[in-house]
């Protein structure tokens, strides 16, 4: 596993467990003296038990207040433990774990890093597999089971793979949009010279989706939804580091019974499974957000699927 961090130190321990080789400790940024988020890396000759992971975690953390994740690698699988010692370990392919941990270590401070790691754990626990999170916008089972059967799925996947390394405005342009400056630092996204179809908000690394910022004086999502409402745009796109989210521009859209600010679909570019990469252009591209594009198709199909499921459950 290859990680980069503000500091890298050797993980030395006098009595390391049998069959475990302690490697390095990666420490994230610490601009305010709270201590950077730490990732302690080791390799093992056999799959580590939960108790072994807990012992390694406890040996490194001791009585300190550091935020720590232990990653033990065995035979192409990474076993992650922490920062909550009561949580269950998570098993991921090494490539996925590497992208997740690097994303955490790249956060600007320990609070943002801890929140980022917690987001990964929450998605894993809620079935948000394959690097995307559906919060009431589409029907999750439809997205994971039916959508990959589309005839254009492989073509969309090939289209998506070169986009996974792009961020911010470069990603917006690669998705096929033309952008122009909008109100309050937003971008208005147009397709083929037509009137704008979406508003985009690009977050700084230190900003969070739902937290008030000095730049906007309210949360980025609240700002974007307000602009979408005033401009009568059907979609809001919000980008932060590896994450890209799609929100409906008006209330009442989506299959979940959630508020507008809580209804979204997110792709995490740092963890998306290559097998599901087609989701990116299928949901976020200019073609997707055009009138009667694939995003509208997904909404209709999700509503139909949810209605049919409800009828079957009633029967």
Fold blueprint:
Elements (H helix, E strand, L loop, with lengths): L6 E4 L9 E8 L10 E7 L5 H12 L6 E7 L2 E5 L8 E4 H12 L4 H16 L6 E4 L4 H7 L6 H8 L7 H7 L3 E4 L5 E4 L7 E5 L17 H12 L3 E6 L2 E6 L15 E5 L10 H6 L1 H4 L4 H21 L1
Parallel strand pairs: 3-4, 10-11
Antiparallel strand pairs: 1-2, 2-3, 4-5, 5-6, 7-13, 8-9, 9-10, 11-12, 12-13
Helix pairs in contact: 2-3
Question: Would you kindly provide a written description of the structure presented here, covering whatever features stand out?
Answer:
The protein starts with 6 loop residues before the first strand and ends with a helix. A 7-stranded mixed sheet has the order 7-13-12-11-10-9-8, sandwiched between helices. 40% of the residues are buried. It has 315 residues and is of the alpha+beta class. The longest helix has 21 residues, at 294-314. It has helices at residues 50-61, 94-105, 110-125, 140-146, 153-160, 168-174, 220-231, 279-284, 286-289, 294-314, and strands at residues 7-10, 20-27, 38-44, 68-74, 77-81, 90-93, 132-135, 178-181, 187-190, 198-202, 235-240, 243-248, 264-268. The protein contains 10 helices and 13 strands. 33% of the residues lie in helices and 22% in strands.
């Amino acid at each position: 596993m290859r990680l980069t961090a503000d500091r890298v130190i050797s993980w030395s321990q006098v009595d390391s467990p049998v069959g475990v080789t302690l490697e390095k400790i990666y420490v994230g940024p610490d601009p305010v003296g709270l201590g950077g988020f730490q990732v302690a890396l080791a390799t093992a000759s056999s799959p580590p038990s939960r108790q072994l992971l807990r012992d390694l975690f406890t040996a490194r953390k001791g009585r300190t207040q550091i935020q720590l994740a232990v990653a033990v690698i065995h035979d192409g699988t990474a076993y992650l433990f922490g920062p909550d010692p009561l949580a269950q370990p998570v098993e991921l392919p090494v490539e996925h774990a590497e992208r997740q941990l690097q994303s955490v270590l790249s956060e600007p401070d320990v609070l943002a890093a801890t929140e980022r790691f917690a987001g990964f754990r929450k998605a894993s626990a809620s079935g948000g597999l394959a690097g995307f999170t559906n919060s009431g916008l589409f029907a999750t089972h439809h997205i994971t089971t039916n959508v990959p059967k589309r005839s254009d799925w492989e073509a969309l996947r090939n289209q998506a793979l070169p986009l996974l390394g792009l961020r911010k405005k470069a990603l917006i342009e690669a998705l096929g949009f033309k952008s122009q400056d909008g109100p309050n630092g937003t971008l208005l996204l147009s397709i083929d010279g037509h009137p704008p179809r979406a508003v985009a908000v690009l977050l700084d690394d230190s900003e969070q989706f739902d937290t008030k910022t000095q730049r906007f004086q309210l949360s980025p999502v609240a700002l974007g939804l307000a602009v979408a409402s005033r401009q009568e745009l059907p979609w809001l796109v919000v980008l932060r580091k590896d994450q890209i989210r799609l929100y409906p521009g008006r209330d009442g859209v989506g299959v979940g019974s959630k508020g507008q600010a809580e209804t979204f679909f997110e792709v995490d570019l740092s963890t998306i499974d290559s097998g599901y990469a087609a989701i990116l252009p299928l949901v976020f591209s200019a073609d997707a957000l055009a009138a009667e594009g694939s995003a509208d198709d997904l909404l209709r199909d999700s509503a139909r699927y949810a209605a049919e499921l409800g009828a079957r459950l009633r029967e």
